[in-house]
Design a protein that fits this description.
Strand order of the largest sheet: 5-6-7-4-8
Helix content: 40-55%
Subcellular location: Cytoplasm
Pfam family, one: DnaA_N
Number of helices: 21
Oligomer: single chain
Order of helices and strands: HHEEHEHHHEHEHHEHEHEHHHHHHHHHH
Organism: Belnapia arida
Bound molecules: adenosine-5'-triphosphate
Main location: cytoplasm
Distance between the termini: 69 Å
Largest sheet: 5 strands, parallel
Keywords: ATP-binding, Cytoplasm, DNA replication, DNA-binding, Lipid-binding, Nucleotide-binding
């Protein structure tokens, strides 16, 4: 059925928006789609208005097809969706008289404009939300604080409470991959908005900054790009290292940076390197980046990894035994993203097969991840470390000497070779002066017995193992 009246069209448009909102989720909808208004239906075209070219292009490329499908489901006659730029959508008074206007302005509106009253009501949204949607789960509540990140966290909190305060502008967060820089930035953005919904916060990666700048150059519309960014209260640029060697974009960023700081606006930047290590970033920009607060996020400790896992496991719908969390915290030491990925995989597997998570199932499901994280230790390294530790000569690892002060460390080294490498017993035997595999077997069980019986000795071996593994 073609839309019969303005009321019916408005209701149909509201349903289309509602479905789109369900499909893309609240955050995305509010960020990109909330400002759509319907101009009307012109022949086979539904005409939608958005206030900027950027929004129009974005919605066209990301949601154009979806909008068309939803329109066709509601009104099969509509074949296309056209999005136009209109900075000021017509006020309600004009909307009411749209039928006449359609004839007068020559746009040939087959249908009147939708009355605004029929559109879903939304909370007001900061203007600059066009930039990049924030991740809903990246808040301060879900950020686990520990020694390695407590300083960065405290700085981010401080900035969220008092943006642009002296000494904290810019806030420069740096640290290795997957350690929570983006999480902290989003958390800061959410908190700033919660404190003061009128503040506009723009978050984007340095890569997006560059692509948008290039797009603006191409379309000869750098004014809009500059104005939009310079109108924000808080600008966050993630992964700044991407700008290394991109001189023109750096230059543009430098000007944006200065314009904002001069106006007393807050800048937050993240990078995998400190400002002084950002070789390939112009000196004047590096200097400015380092003149506020520089906070690094260090590699995770076992305690932090375990706390993060505990927090994440508490929200999972299956029970994750503490031993399994300890196993993951012990083995997956690279970064939080991988840790989280491993836990998610375990939980998904348990949900899918309806089986509880156990140490065995964790080993089975995550065997590839755990193996990849196993530090490859060679028999030579073990022999060297053990010889150093017991103060014997390295050659004694393969010599025929049987004195206790030499034989016992050799047995320890064989034991560790069995525990820490994939080598077979005969192979280990060969590497210890061509000894038989039964000698290695005997050494392994003898050391295990001694460790049971003597806590001091067990500690000694555990220490050696730790030194070799880290
Ligand atoms: N302290 C933490 N508490 C809870 N989750 C964390 C913490 N640190 C990191 N994460 C989680 O780890 C994942 C990776 O974090 P994030 O994307 O913020 O890292 P990043 O440092 O920005 O990485 P990259 O260098 O790749 O951009 C996210 O899912 C994040 O929620």
């Amino acid at each position: 059925m073609p839309p019969q009246s303005s009321g019916e069209l408005a209701a149909g448009w509201a349903r289309i928006r509602g479905r789109l909102r369900e499909e893309v989720g609240e955050v995305e909808y509010r960020t990109w789609l909330r400002q759509m208004t319907l101009a009307g239906v012109e022949g086979e075209d539904a005409v939608i208005l958005l206030p900027t070219r950027f929004l129009r292009d974005w919605v066209n490329s990301h949601y154009g097809d979806r909008l068309r499908v939803l329109w066709q489901a509601e009104y099969p006659e509509v074949r296309r969706v056209e999005i136009r730029v209109s900075a000021t959508p017509p006020p309600e008074a004009v909307l009411a008289g749209a039928e006449e206007r359609a004839g007068v302005d020559g746009r040939g509106l087959a249908e009147p404009l939708a009355p605004r009253a029929a559109e879903p009501r939304m909370a007001p949204e900061p203007r600059s939300d066009w930039v990049v949607p924030l991740e809903a789960r990246f808040t301060f509540d879900t950020f686990v604080v520990g020694k390695p990140n407590e300083f960065a966290h405290a700085c981010a909190r401080r900035v969220s409470e008092k943006p642009a305060s002296p000494g904290f502008n810019p806030l420069f967060l740096y640290g290795g991959v997957g350690l929570g820089k983006t999480h902290l930035m989003h958390a800061t953005a959410w908190a700033i908005r919660a404190h003061d919904p009128q503040r506009t916060v723009a978050y984007m990666s340095a890569e997006k900054f560059m692509y948008r700048f290039i797009a603006a150059l191409r379309s000869q519309n750098t004014m809009e790009f500059k104005e939009t960014l310079r109108a924000v209260d808080v600008l966050m640029i993630d992964d700044l290292q991407f700008l290394i060697g991109k001189d023109n974009t750096q230059e543009e960023f430098f000007h944006t940076f200065n314009a904002l700081v001069d106006q007393g606006k807050q800048i937050i930047v993240s990078s995998d390197k400190s400002p002084s290590d950002l070789a390939g970033i112009e000196d004047r920009l590096r200097t400015r980046l380092g003149c506020g607060m520089v906070a690094d996020i260090h590699a995770t400790t076992y305690e932090l990894r375990l706390s993060i896992l505990q927090a994440k496991a508490a929200t999972a719908q299956v029970v994750v035994p503490p031993k399994v969390l300890e196993l993951l915290a012990n083995k997956i030491t690279t970064n939080v993203r991988e840790l989280e990925g491993a836990l998610n995989r375990l939980v998904a597997h348990a949900n899918l097969f309806g089986r509880p998570i156990t140490i065995d199932s964790a080993h089975e499901v995550l065997h590839d991840v755990l193996r990849a994280h196993e530090k490859r230790v060679s028999i030579e390294e073990i022999q060297k470390k053990v010889a150093e530790h017991y103060n014997i000569r390295l050659t004694d690892m393969s010599s025929a000497r049987r004195a206790r002060n030499v034989a016992r460390p050799r047995q320890v080294a064989m034991y560790l070779a069995k525990q820490l490498t994939q080598r077979s017993l005969p192979e280990i035997g060969r590497r210890f002066g061509n000894r038989d595999h039964t000698t290695v077997m005997h050494a392994v069980s003898r050391i295990a017995e001694l460790m049971e019986a003597d806590a001091g000795f067990a500690e000694d071996v555990a220490l050696l193992r730790k030194m070799l593994e880290t």
